[in-house]
Every structure is written in structure tokens, then in C-alpha cells.
Amino acid sequence: MAAPTIKIALIGNPNTGKTSVFNQLTGLNQQVGNYPGITVERKQGSVKLPGNIKGTVIDLPGTYSLNASSIDENVVIELLLNRNDKDFPDVAVVVTDVENLKRNLLLFTQIKDLEIPTILVVNMADRMDRKGISLDIPYLEEHLNTKIALVSSRKGIGIDALKKLILDYKNLSTEPCLNASSIDPEYFNKLRNAFPNQLLYKLWLVITQDVNFGALERNEIQNSSFTKSKSELKRLQQKETIKRYQFINDVLKGGLTVDSSKAKDLRAKLDRLLTHKVFGYIIFFCILMLIFQSIFAWSAIPMDFIDESFTHLSSWASKSLPPGKLTELIANGIVPGIGGVVIFIPQIAFLFLFISLLEESGYMSRVVFLMDKIMKRFGLSGKSIVPLISGTACAIPAIMAARNIENWRERLITILVTPFTTCSARLPVYTILISLIIPNRMALGFFNLQGLTLMLLYLLGFGGAILSAYILNKILKTRHKSFFVAEMPNYKMPLFKNVAINVIEKTKAFVFGAGKIILALSIVIWFLGSHGPGDNFKNAEAHITQQPQYMNLSQDEIDNEIAGYQLENSYIGIIGKAIEPVIRPLGYDWKIGIAIVSSFAAREVFVGTLATIYNIGSSGDDEATIKQRMDAEINPATGDKVFNFATGVSLLLFYAFAMQCISTLAITKKETNSWKWPLIQLFGMSTFAYIVSLVAYQLLK
Ligand code: GDP
């Protein structure tokens, strides 16, 4: 019979190197998902233990204590309280940082008191020398009643010893550290008499926390005579914490010595500079600018390559496969759809490469410290600055970057408002519209008016994000308390393995999470644009070739006429015409309507669709002709130009604020685990865009 798999739970304070230990144990054998119903990331992996025994490791969210203040922490408590949970661990591995042992051990003593076999990992052992720290391991093992693995997950030292300890988990003592009744003997005695079969510390957690555990529902205890007032409970919790620290202090007095003369003060100097009221911001913005430049510059090459490859693949497919509906679906629906997913990979990978480097080095914590005060006013977190600014490249990696924000409410607001920032897909639309309606002149001697308008649009996007964050902050009510522990981990050289795994995981999450939805919706949009009801669509070719005015056109020109006529009579064309009454007050006709509808696949489609509608040939990179054609378009009702100043401004504002990107909706769905938020985004942003454009057009026309 095969030996059963050992279930291991990794638990620890944030920044203790828990992820690195997880990576060391499991390598790339990881599965990342979400806990059902909530958006907390769930990581699991498998590990090979000596003697070919297998283990599964669950990497539980980082938590400071079992006194839950966030959904992340609830996940940890609920699992550890429910012995019947299929993931309930055989052994708990608590990871601590040797430099923060005192604080990290608080959680350890709590876990130990749940009477689960517990191993203590003292991580970052490589730093002990420099910091003058020495540990008396046997002494600590004896007084903490556990086994200790002294580990450097950075150097891969001590991992084998840890594996051996895990294998031997049955020999671990499950004796608690703290006698729970000492918190309030009278009260706990009453509890013990009422629930003789339950562990006292578990009862205490159920009473004080917002959690359930299997056999014993929270209500059962709360309805009994054991409730105490909130303030009384708080007082007892504080007493518990003090008792735990007394215990930890006593143990560390005998087992830990620090020769402080060895500790370097470089860190303090760096901290002072990086969180400086002036220089801190300057340094941060320089780093951000550098990152953007690199993301733009470096991903342009692979993105062009991907774009070209998929265009080739698609034309190859339509030429080489037998003609028919299936080939059309493959060549024009599926291949470009997959291309539309793959094209985002370079930007996502580069962005996460930089974010991981900032996080791993310890710099990100300084940024949070720096930005937190300002961003908190808008319901955002200091870390929201990264998604908001990354949004200028593309909202997709930007929204994924919001994962670094621990507080769910701040993260949600960040996700919802990030699409306002001006992404690169808006640029082609902006450029062509600006060149149509804004004269290419200098203002005040050195400002180019067109450039100024473009900058204004960027500021508008950023303003839209901040304003809507402010509004959401006022409206959104969530139950989760914000609990920010300002923590400054040490500066460290980033660990290549952590960075690489992070980049791979994020990219995979995008491709297999949002990718599926993007592909499906792109196929739908393709279908709607290339199929139509009735004879008009089907007989487009006959219709065009019979018209006498097209007799003298070249084959290419005739093809363009057919493509335009087909688009006009396709489902998208029909939708575009149907919405004309709704968009006319904004100054748009049905042709612009069609372009807006197809822009829901991706904004940059706008120009291409107009080109097709105006029969310029959809391959037309020839911006000059499209622009001339748009400029010459006359509104038959008024005799005025269609793309006049009022309509142009109205369109610019519409594209600045409307939610027109199914990929973004897909990623919001993925990251919030619900359709509710992307729908709110879609309707909220689009309504806002509609109103702003309406007002602008009506005032300007
Ligand atoms: P988590 O937040 O607990 O998951 O911690 P991470 O695994 O992300 O690590 C936090 C930081 O500590 C990163 O910068 C790691 O590179 C660093 N780190 C992790 N393990 C070690 C170690 O053994 N030694 C040193 N010096 N740094 C480490």
C-alpha cells in the first residue's frame, strides 16, 4: 500500500520568507487558485520527502496572529479550527524571520495551542552573522516544546533538515505553550464545564473571532450565557497577547543573544533617504518612469512579433485550409482571438518582473509608507500607485498588480478605477481625433496644442480614477476592517527563483484565467461583425458589382466597397444603426456607432473599423487616407463636417471614460471572482462617459 500523503500547512507573518520556503519545497509543482467565494489566493504544491513519501503543502496567507482582522486571516483560522476540513494539516510549519523572532513567535504560540503538531522554521539564517545573532537551538526546542529547522530559504540551506522533521511529524509534542485558562480562570472554567469535549483555546477563538468551526457553530456559543461585552472580550484578548509575549520573552532570554555592535546602520540611512518627504517621492517617480520606459520599449519588439506572427498564421490558415465556415472561424475568429491574448504576455511579464524586484528588494514597503497617507484619503492604498500608473501601458497587468494590496476594500477600489488611466490602446484613437480637430499650432510660444491636448487627456484619465475612487470610498461598505501594520523589512538582493516563479505564475493566471473569456468574447465579436441577417449581407458582392458607379474601380477598391457594405449589414452594423438615436445627442452617426460597438473588443479597433466603413480597406495602415476620408465626411442633415470640433471633443471624452475593453472586464471578473464588479465597471464608466460627452457636445455644437 502506498504511504499516505502528508498534509503540510505553511503559516507565518508576512515577509518572513514563507513564499521562498514554499518555493524551495515545491519548486514549480504549484497550483494557484482562489478560495471558493472569496478572492484570497490559495497556493498549494507538492513536495517529495525522503523515502519517496509525498507531501502536499498549502501556503496559507500571511498573517500576524490568529486574532483575525482580514479575510486572509480568517482563511487561516477557519482551516486550523476545522479538523474535518479536507485540507486540515497533519503538521503545521510556522515560518519566522530570525531578525523578528519575538514578534513572529506570537503566531507560533497560538498555533501550538491548537494542539496541532508544529515545526518552527527560523528563516533567514544567512543574516545571523552580519547581525550578530546567535541561537541556542536545543534550549529553544526544549522551552518551545517543538522541533526547529534553521533555514536560509535564500541559499537553500536547511531545507533537507526541514523535510526530515516533516517526515517525523508524529513525534512532535502537541502540548500548548500557554495555559488558556490563565487568561481568566473563572470564565474559562465555566467554559470547560459547558463544553467538556472541546479544546479551550479553540472555544476562545470561536468566541472572539468571526469564524465557525465544524462541530460547534459560533451561534451556539454566542447564544449561550458565555457572551461577554465587546470591550470585555478586547480586554481579555489584550491580556492573552501580553501573556504570550511574557512567555516568548522568557524563552528568548535563554535562547537568543544579539551582539548589537555588529549590526550595520546602512539600513537606517537608506530608509531615511527613501522615505524622505521630498527625495523619497523624486526617487520613486524616477524609478517608475524608468520602469515604464522599459515596459514600453522592451515589450514593443515581442508584441510586434506576436502581432505579425498571428496575422501570418491567420492568412496562412485562410489560404491553406479548405474554404468554408470552419476555416473562417479558425482564420478570423480563433487565431486572432488567441493572438489577442498572447499579445499581452510581454507587458504582463515585464511589469511583474519589475514589481517582483521592487517587492523582493524591500523597496516596495518604503513606497507604501510614502504614499499611504495620500492614497488613503481616496480609499486607496499606498500600493495602488503601481496599478494606477501601470495602467498607462495596459489595464490588464495593472489590475493584476493590485494583488499586492492586502486590504480587500482598497484592492477592489483600485481594480475598479484603474481602467480610467489612459492605456496605450486609446492612443491611436486619440492621435487621429486630435489631428482632426486640434490645429497643429504652438501656444504660448512653446506648447504644441496637439501635444497639450494629449497630455490633458492623460491627466483627465488619472483624475477620473482618483475622483471615482473618492466616490466609491464614500459608497462602498465592507465589513472588513483595515489593519495596516507599518512594517519595514530588510533590504535584500532579490531572489531569482522567487522573481521567476512570480512572473510565470502571474502570466499563467492571465492566460488561463482571463484568456479564456477574452478568446470567447473575441469570437463572438468576430461572428457579429462577419455575419448578418437577410440578403443584404449575403449578396454584398452581387450588390456592389451591379452598381454602375463601381464599374471602373480596381479589384482592390471593389473588395473594399464589399467589405464596407458587409460590415454595414452585419449584426454589428445593425447594432450600430440601432443605437444611433441614443448616440445622436453626443454628435455621432451610425458609422461612428459601428466603430464604438466594435471597439468593445479593443479600443484600437476604432480606426480600422472606420476605415472599413469608409471603404478604405481594412488593411489600411495608411493613416493619411483614413484621416482625409474622416475629414471629408459630411453630415447630410446639416451639411457640416461629421468630425467637427464638438463631435471630436465628445468622442475623445467618450473614449477617455467609457469601459470599452472586454479584456479588462475579463480580468476584473477573474480578480474579483464575481461578475458583479465588471458589470458595475461597464455600466458605471460608460454612463459617466455618456453624460460627460453629452454635456460637452451640447455645449460646443
Ligand atoms: P513572504 O512575504 O513571507 O512570503 O516572504 P517572501 O518569500 O516573499 O520573502 C520576503 C523577502 O525575504 C524577499 O525579499 C526574499 O528574497 C527574502 N528572503 C526570503 N528568504 C530569505 C533568506 O533565507 N535569507 C534572506 N537574506 N532573505 C530571504
From TrEMBL:
Gene3D superfamilies: P-loop containing nucleotide triphosphate hydrolases (3.40.50.300). Probable transporter of a GTP-driven Fe(2+) uptake system. Residues 5-172 form the FeoB-type G domain. It is found in: Cell inner membrane; Cell membrane. This is Ferrous iron transport protein B. GTP binds at residues 12-19, 37-41, 59-62, 123-126. The keyword Transferase does not apply. GO terms for molecular function: ferrous iron transmembrane transporter activity; GTP binding; metal ion binding. Belongs to the TRAFAC class TrmE-Era-EngA-EngB-Septin-like GTPase superfamily. FeoB GTPase (TC 9.A.8) family. It is a multi-pass membrane protein. Mg(2+) binds at residues 23, 26-27. The chain crosses the membrane at residues 278-301, 329-358, 412-438, 450-472, 509-529, 645-667, 679-700. Keywords: Cell membrane, GTP-binding, Ion transport, Iron, Iron transport, Magnesium, Membrane, Metal-binding, Nucleotide-binding, Transmembrane, Transmembrane helix, Transport. GO terms for cellular component: plasma membrane. SUPFAM superfamilies: P-loop containing nucleoside triphosphate hydrolases. InterPro entries: Fe2_transport_prot-B (IPR003373), Fe2_transport_prot_B_C (IPR011640), FeoB_GTPase (IPR050860), G_FEOB_dom (IPR030389), Gate_dom (IPR011642), GTP-bd (IPR006073), P-loop_NTPase (IPR027417).
